[in-house]
Amino acid sequence: MENLKYKNKVVGVKQVKNAVKSGRADRVYIADDSDISVTSSMFELCRENGIEPIIVETRKELGRACGVDVYTAAAAILKS
Asked: What is the pTM of this model?
């Protein structure tokens, strides 16, 4: 998992969905240990917008990579 701490990003399912819908998301990361009810719509939204989500093993790993102190189900790197 790459370090996302210093990249222009959004963290959290709602923020990632908004970034994808608005066309601002370049890459989307989804934690594999997230509840499917939370992530299933995220996968569908990515598919509809031509983004291949990158699967990260755990929410803890994704949160740490983003430089936040909480577990996170999703994160997105924004287009520059």
From this structure: 0.91
